[in-house]
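Regression test case RT-17, inverse folding.

Input:
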């Protein structure tokens, strides 16, 4: 009886398993529309407002527990509790391995820590799950710059800017390194 109770307590304390996480909301149609709007935006301010709407889509977690973990990690990252943020994003990925933003946010934490190799792995995972994640593309470009892989960085940066020409990362674009925008 005591053994069964201890096992039940242990199971209740284990993290929620990935099969419990529903699929992430499919915002493909809306994101495609926002990318088209960003490409046509007449001003930088209009482009930034559209970018903010993209972030709202990416940060829409699959369910309430995932949203709570994501939000906790974001709060910790903003407070520069990078270890705490990384732990939260690890939990989010364990719970929802198909949710792109968990990888993207963990990549950002690793980028801040200047662990560019780990950041790059998670950015690639983000883009496998969300190929039009403009911010992840821009982050990948910056990460490649951090790794001194400048030629690759310029290619990726151009891909991101083709989707959203108003990204602040455009200041890293080197003229004459490929097709100009």
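Golden output:
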């Amino acid at each position: 009886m005591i053994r069964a109770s201890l096992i039940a307590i242990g199971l209740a304390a284990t993290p929620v398993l990935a099969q419990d996480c529903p699929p992430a909301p499919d915002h493909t149609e809306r994101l495609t529309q926002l990318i088209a709007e960003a490409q046509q935006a007449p001003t930088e301010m209009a482009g930034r407002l559209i970018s903010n709407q993209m972030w709202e889509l990416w940060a829409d977690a699959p369910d309430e527990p995932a949203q709570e973990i994501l939000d906790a990690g974001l709060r910790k990252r903003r407070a520069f509790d990078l270890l705490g943020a990384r732990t939260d994003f690890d939990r989010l990925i364990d719970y929802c391995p198909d949710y792109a933003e968990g990888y993207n946010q963990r990549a950002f934490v690793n980028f801040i820590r200047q662990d560019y190799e780990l950041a790059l792995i998670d950015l690639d995972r983000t883009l496998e799950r969300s190929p039009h994640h403009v911010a992840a593309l821009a982050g990948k470009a910056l990460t490649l710059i951090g790794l001194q892989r400048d030629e690759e960085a310029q290619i990726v940066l151009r891909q991101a800017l083709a989707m959203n020409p108003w990204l602040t990362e455009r200041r890293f674009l080197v003229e004459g390194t490929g097709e100009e925008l």
